[in-house]
Amino acid sequence: MAFIKEESEDVKIEETFRVKQEDTEEQTDLVVLKEESQELNQKEDKNQYEKHDFMPGEKSLSCSHSEKTTRKRAKMTTERCNFTCQQCGKSFFHQRNLTVHMRIHTGEKPYTCQHCGRSFIQKGSLKVHMRVHTGECPFTCQQCGKSFSRNGNLKVHMRIHTRESPFTCQQCGKCFTQKGSLKVHMRIHTGETPFTCQQCGKSFKHKGALNDHRNTHTREKPFVCVQCGKTFKFTRALNEHTRIHSKENCFICHQCGSSFTDKKHLKNHVKNHIGEKPFMCHECGKNCENKGNLEAHRRVHTGEKPFTCLQCGKCFTLKGNLNIHLRLHTGEKPFSCLQCGKSFALKGNLEVHMRLHTGERPYKCLQCEKRFTNNKDLKGHSQTHSEQKTTMF
């Protein structure tokens, strides 16, 4: 099946995947609240309709009589809506519906899931939520067979087939299948970052990005690979990692046939073929493949080192360098030699070590053609030639 173009490719790499996942916690809460409100309205309409419906066997009315009945029914509806919310002015036929509605204002959620502890305003909403745990997906797309736990999610999904994108950004014209996606997109134009870290004050456009950021403070890696035990900070990182075990390569380069477990890696790879480097540094004119690389490069000019080791205070320009440095404190050596079992903190050190087993010596002395396994040994050897020349003179 052809891949559907994501709506948010221009968002920062760190935050992009949250926009793509339209069922985020923030949007899910809004959907549940909206559905619960709609449920109340439907119940009200149903009750009103049932109270004024025609009895079986009743003769059909004339057009004029029908209009009178409609006006009379509307008048009765107005008179019978005598349960009004004092906070928003919404009216209800029954006290019980007003009571349920008030929970939207009070925040009361009396129905709690025994599996995960999440709470809901209505019992029906809890019932729908339970499908997350049971895996039940009763709403199926007739075109591709994909199933969903909510009818609303199926309706949104159908827009993929119909290519309907009813929500349009008034500033740039970009279209979205969901109103929530448009709302998140608008933060690019407004610069709004409503989700703030309480520890360092850094703000984010998306709630998911804030949750990921918090892990940098706690060093927590809650997502565990069941096959090898490796832990990850983010679910997306775990999902990418599991493809290594399954040998799954979903993203294939059509020019050379190379396959990748992540779409981002494929996108960066394709730029090697087309030579595209659209992000230019205004200081030195260097071009970079993506925005993240450009931001990292700019730190060469600014001297900024935003990633700090909490144990020794050493600062780094790249987060990856900080992660490598932390292994000095933790003693972690994730790269192991399969032949002798020796472990290393750096992948490069393992590669140099493997030359002891393979006999490879890629570093050659230009004066005597003697070969070495690493550059350090070659430099040490080169000094012997320099000393010999000094002795001769």
TrEMBL record:
Its main location: nucleus. Keywords: DNA-binding, Metal-binding, Nucleus, Repeat, Transcription, Transcription regulation, Zinc, Zinc-finger. GO terms for cellular component: nucleus. The keyword Transcription applies. Residues 36-56 have a biased composition (Basic and acidic residues). It is found in: Nucleus. May be involved in transcriptional regulation. PANTHER family: ZINC FINGER PROTEIN 142, ZINC FINGER PROTEIN 322A. This is C2H2-type domain-containing protein. It comes from Cyprinus carpio (Common carp).
